[in-house]
Design a protein that fits this description.
mainly alpha
Length: 522
């Protein structure tokens, strides 16, 4: 079981703080893993650390913007926070490590406190404000947050107007309330998309917020975005530089700032300086691949084809490694247009296409992937990886006999390769050659005893043969190795029912539903 699965298991067992530790480790190591960010957000929300939970959901949404589950989770967290005055936290190390990536114009202040008495940046005029006024101001802001969350999720502009009104009431009572200025900026930036006059007002609100907290990287970023939208590009670049300077402890912001700055430089006709800015994006930053692709475009336009090819190759590999498969396909297509027949690029494009097929099955995608591996095999006919991948394409296309031929060629090179053995077993099973398939699943179990998949398939075969006791033993072996897959418990429920154990079957069905709900939440 991997660290992510450990975190999910701990969450399921109600051990939320331990789950946070595990999931935080995954999100830190794989900062483009949107599932890890979302799962961490869910776990943090259970501990009551809503501010950090919101940041995690925003990170998840920035990486997978169309995911409705993440939108719902973000809305819930903001609504919960709007009803809370004191927010319990875990430990300071989580606050130091969890970083926002600014997916929208709504960024939580990572270090700002909801407790007025502990704020380090209040100016002297705030000291004379009564506790009652502060409480009323906070209530107004909580209402504004709630309205803002509803408006964002349901796309109701009128609620934004109401939210803005509540923010204004809060600021009337407490003029130095940074969180209120921050929300006002967010609202005005959204409404400014349709009413440019609101951008001027948003800029004024930014200035006011920065007079309270002058070193807030997020507010400098917002200011830069507003100036960019107003066409004041030199000032926007300067503001992005300020945001960059204050973001040294939030590394996930750095790449985004550099990308924004470079894009402005390109738009105003300064590609040479833009090129230098793209080259500053850190190698481990989620925008590194985009930066390399943009760098390649500038290099190609300047006539430096060789460096452009190198940059595109780097972009494609980075996108593939970060599971950014559509971006990988785009970079590799560009590369293949410059260097037709490039074996590495063709193979990597094939891998990206297979990953896209897993997400959204399409025969056209498979046919395109098959062409890629054909290209690679023409240059290296005995390359085992290419043989396996071509075999997989053929199997998924329903061309089982052809697919088996390529898997057999791969097994001739390495008879113990688990992926090939498993694929051949599945192909034989699909051809209803169950006895032969069982032999290959037995081989996988002997070579890779920690894997659950061959046990699942063996159980399925014995279930088909109505050998229920054997099927039950094998599915239990699978559960020992992987106990968070809803399909495994659904299969055991079928076996239990066939054995006449209705109560146990219902328990397994319940378990399967619970795990399915957990997956949809995460």
């Amino acid at each position: 079981m991997n660290t992510f699965q450990d975190g999910v298991r701990l969450y399921k067992e109600g051990k939320y703080i331990e789950a946070v530790e595990k999931l935080h480790a995954v999100a830190s190591a794989e900062h483009t893993n949107h599932k890890a960010w979302n799962a961490l957000g869910v776990a943090l929300s259970k501990t009551g650390d809503l501010d950090q939970s919101i940041i995690c959901f925003e990170n998840a949404l920035s990486l997978d913007p169309a995911n409705k589950t993440y939108v719902v989770n973000l809305g819930r967290a903001k609504t919960k926070r709007s009803g809370s005055i004191q927010v319990p936290v875990l430990s300071q190390k989580h606050h130091d490590k969890v970083a926002t990536v600014l997916p929208t114009n709504q960024e939580s202040d990572l270090k700002g406190s909801r407790n007025f008495e502990s704020s380090e940046n209040k100016i002297s005029s705030s000291l004379s404000i009564s506790a009652d006024s502060k409480a009323i101001a906070e209530d107004s802001l909580n209402r504004a947050f709630s309205l803002f969350g509803q408006a964002s999720y349901h796309n109701i502009p009128d609620l934004l107007v109401e939210a803005l009104s509540s923010v204004e009431k809060s600021l009337e009572l407490y003029p130095d309330y940074y969180d209120a200025w921050q929300l006002k900026v967010s609202i005005l930036m959204i409404t400014g998309e349709k009413n440019p006059n609101h951008l001027d007002e948003a800029l004024q609100a930014c200035e006011r917020a920065l007079s309270i907290k002058p070193e807030q990287a997020s507010m400098w970023f917002n200011k830069a975005g507003i100036l960019e939208n107003l066409g004041r590009y030199d000032e926007a670049i300067s503001a992005y530089d300020r945001s960059y300077g204050y973001s040294t402890d939030e590394p996930m912001r750095l790449g985004l700032i550099l990308m924004k700055k470079a894009a402005i430089l390109e738009s105003i006709g300064n590609p040479s300086l833009a090129l230098k800015v793209y080259e500053q994006v850190p190698v481990n930053d989620r925008f590194f691949g985009d930066a390399m692709e943009n760098r390649a475009k500038i290099l190609e336009q300047s006539g430096d084809r060789e460096l452009a090819v190198t940059s595109l190759r780097t972009a494609g590999l980075f996108h593939l490694k970060q599971n950014q498969y559509e971006k990988a396909r785009h970079s590799l297509d560009h590369l293949l247009s410059l260097v037709p027949g490039d074996v590495e690029a063709a193979s990597n494009k094939g891998l990206a296409l297979l990953a896209l097929y897993d997400q959204n099955p399409s025969r056209d995608i498979l046919e395109d992937a098959l062409k890629c591996f054909d290209t690679a095999l023409q240059a290296e006919p005995e390359n085992m990886t290419y043989l396996i991948q071509k075999g997989r394409c053929l199997l998924d296309l329903g061309r089982f006999e052809e697919g088996l031929q390529y898997l057999d060629r791969a097994l001739w090179i390495d008879p113990s390769d688990g992926i090939t053995l498993m694929n051949k077993g599945v192909a034989l099973y699909q051809l209803s050659r169950h006895e032969e398939a069982l032999k290959y699943f037995d081989l996988v179990c002997s070579h890779y005893p920690e894997h659950a998949a061959p046990w699942i398939m063996k159980s399925r075969i014995h279930l088909d043969w109505k050998q229920y006791d054997t099927a039950l033993m094998e599915i239990n072996q699978a559960i020992q190795r992987e106990n968070d897959d809803p399909k495994v418990f659904a299969q055991r429920a079928t076996i239990m029912r066939a054995l006449g154990k209705e109560n146990e079957a219902r328990e397994d069905e319940k378990k399967s539903r619970e795990l399915s709900e957990l997956i949809s939440e995460n």
